[in-house]
Amino acid sequence: MSANLSLSGQFSSITYLEQGKTNISEGPFIKGSIGLSAKKEILRLDLSFRFGLLNSNGNIPEAFKVLAGAFVQAGEHALRPSLIVMNNYYNTTVNVRDLAILTDYEKTHFSYTLGLDFKTYSYNNKALVEYNIEAENRKLSENWNLIWAIQYFLKPLGNKWNISLAITNIDDYLINQETNPFFKLSGYYDVNEKISLFGMFVYKNSGSFNLSSNHFGYQIKCGLRWKIL
Fold first, then answer.
1. Which of 38, 57, 108, 204 has its CA at 20 to 30 Å from residue 30's CA atom?
2. pTM of the model as a whole
């Protein structure tokens, strides 16, 4: 969900700080994210990393994501199909890997996202020994999870500034089950042709079944996008 990002720059960087608290964090946390984006005509390749700054889980990085996509414009409509490979190191024993295929559809004031996610939970070697887990039981897969999002923009897409409200089950480094969405209130301001400032408030509820394993809580993100070339 990146309808506010221009495609005119060939190389750009996205950096932001994130403060929040969830049911799996040990109190409030602060994280940082650094990303690079390269574009060539209609093609796009993104690489991003997240690091813990306060209440870190001990992993460096805590997560990384690779996104390969395209941009197709047809009048006032736009399609952004993409493939995402993402890895989260939630703690020192469990890793979560996502392989997602999705597309964004944009029109004037709205953006819609639809796709599929294939998720794998895996214990590392340390956990196998510490918890006496059999090697054949080290992985658990969740396949064919639906990815979806509906986002409304106050101003038409491409405006110098904008505010949006979204309901979705996908975030920068997290893909929830389709029954466990969260809400996003976000905005951006283009300072000039090269620099954009943005902020976001994310509220994650406990899901339709109120499971403690769901990621619920809040996050506040503030950062900038800089078009290098």
1. 38
2. 0.88
